[in-house]
Design a protein that fits this description.
The structure holds 2 protein chains of 2 kinds. By secondary structure, chain A is mainly alpha-helical. Helices cover 80% and strands 0% of the residues of chain A. The mean pLDDT of chain A is 91. The longest helix of chain B is centred in the middle third of the chain and has 17 residues. Classes of the chains: A mainly alpha, B alpha/beta.
Chain lengths: 297, 204
């Protein structure tokens, strides 16, 4: 099989930089990471310097994702040799046990980390992940709530909690978590947009109006967010079609929906330029928007 | 009433699940619109000719699902298709039961198409070798979903489906599969997956 560097015509430095980018963006493209990092470690270990340790960590986690226990074990041994007694490495050992579904042993590993250092957030979060892996969503939610009372600034945890609530269809509580995230990240259009989606799903006129406002806010923060644009269109359309609104509100929402429909059409026209196949989507979108207008009026 | 799957439909379903092994995924199945009901009592199973991968990750939010259903419904009408089924692969390996999302969406589809089927992928039996069909097919009877045994009869051509799915999984074709989520990230991404359709045809 051709090597990564041959297939993509890249140098080892480019491979190393790509790994760094994936690390920083927290990408979960595990198969690619394993391919690139395995080659990098096998062929260019000496050139990597101290970078190699963080790459070992990154590829170990990716290897667990791909069921490559051989690779994960090798990385773990290298890290153990270099950093004996490290809690960070101990946590990786725990993750390997989780991947092997040895949840009790993994739990004990994390407990021993927490005995030495009760503020170790990584170990606490892994324990919650074990509950999630076992399908114990209610327990995971409870533990995560307790965790967040102590570590109230942990954004990753708030987002995880909102996902857990959404999966349990507890949209009210999911909205609360997203509100926390929006407060600390007022410029993040993705949180705004997800909050709007949760409110829309909750349903009811008040929530629909809130959802429309937050879709609009997300669009203001990023005018290329298609979900926000579609969301604005859908929420405005539903409000306009509702029998409970007065004529003025209806008129305003018809206007918002019409504006959104126009923007959606433009976005599709722009995307479809040059490709014959995309023209079918453009047409489908136009027809969909037209057919929805009929139900609105 | 039961549905049958073509190779293309089965392939793309599995490719979608393979692309996001750590997420729940879902999507729709489409069948050719029947021209008219047969006058005699011969029974023809519905043939699902294609699959449209929808979302990965969080499946329980409404707005984008509504957009997708409406848009794909419009696309179906233009192409003389009808939305005939819904598939879902859950996030956890051992979780193979249909949940609230699956039942709700499938029920909505059944409102427009009475013989709609709900398909849940059995993750525990999902291997590269594709030795056996790994789906659980549910039919709607009296407001309940009943599981039907899925065997090679549920496929237009099981041998072909098995061979081609194996080839595409090994070739990592799932890396280029586009679902509706990918389309919303970049409108140029085509959720009809013409390239993968071509590969399937090519391998037939």
């Amino acid at each position: 099989m051709a090597s990564v560097s041959e297939m993509y015509d890249v140098t080892w430095e480019e491979m190393r930089d790509k790994l760094r980018k994936w690390r920083e963006d927290n990408h979960r493209n595990s198969e690619q990471i394993v391919d690139v990092a395995e080659e990098l470690i096998n062929e260019h270990a000496s050139k990597l310097g101290d970078d190699i340790w963080i790459i070992y960590e990154q590829v170990m986690i990716a290897a667990l994702d791909c069921s490559r226990d051989d690779l994960a074990w090798t990385c773990l041994q290298e890290l153990k040799k270099q950093f004996p007694g490290s809690q960070r490495v101990k946590r990786l050992g725990g993750m390997r046990l989780e991947a092997l579904e040895k949840y009790e042993e993994a739990g004990k590993q994390y407990d021993s980390i927490l005995q030495e250092d009760p503020t170790n957030t990584a170990a606490r979060k892994r324990k919650i992940s074990i509950l999630k892996a076992q399908g114990k969503n209610t327990d995971a939610i409870r533990e995560l709530n307790e965790y967040l009372e102590l570590f109230v600034g942990d954004q990753e945890a708030w987002h995880e909690l909102s996902d857990l609530y959404i999966n349990e269809h507890d949209y009210g509580k999911a909205a609360f978590c997203l509100e926390e995230l929006m407060m600390t990240n007022p410029h993040n259009h993705l949180y705004c947009e997800q909050y709007a989606e949760v409110k829309y799903t909750q349903g009811g006129l008040e929530n629909l109006e809130l959802s429309r406002k937050y879709f609009a806010q997300a669009l203001k923060l990023n005018n290329r967010n298609m979900r926000a644009l579609f969301g604005l269109y859908m929420s405005a359309s539903h409000i306009a079609a509702s029998p409970k609104v007065n004529a003025a509100v209806k008129k305003a929402n018809v206007k918002y929906a019409a504006w959104a429909a126009n923007q959606i059409n433009r976005a599709y026209q722009l995307a479809g330029r040059g490709t014959k196949e995309n023209k079918c989507s453009v047409k489908a979108v136009e027809e969909m928007l037209e057919s929805m207008q009929i139900t609105m009026s | 009433m039961s549905i049958k799957l073509t190779t293309q439909a089965y392939c793309k379903m599995l490719l979608h699940a393979a692309k996001y092994p750590h997420c729940a995924v879902n999507g729709l199945l489409v069948a050719e619109k029947q021209k008219e009901k047969k006058k005699d009592n011969t029974y023809t199973p519905i043939l699902c000719v294609d699959c449209i991968p929808l979302f990965h990750g969080t499946l329980a939010l409404a707005p984008m699902l509504e957009v997708a259903l409406t848009l794909i419904d419009t696309w179906c009408k233009e192409n003389k298709y009808v939305i005939a089924g819904y598939y879902q692969a859950n996030e956890r390996i051992k979780d193979f039961r249909p949940n609230q999302v699956a039942e709700k969406v499938a029920a909505r589809i059944a409102e427009n198409f009475s013989e709609a089927a709900m398909i849940i992928v059995d993750n525990t039996r999902f291997t590269m070798g594709c030795y056996e069909p790994i789906l659980a097919i549910y039919d709607h009877h009296e407001n309940k979903w009943k599981c039907r045994d899925c065997n090679v009869d549920c496929f237009e051509d099981w041998c072909e489906a098995q061979k081609i799915t194996l080839a595409l999984l090994e070739g990592r074709s799932y890396e280029s599969l586009i679902d509706f989520d990918n389309h919303l990230d970049d409108l140029r991404n085509d959720w009809t997956n013409p390239e993968i359709n071509k590969s399937v045809l090519h391998l037939c």
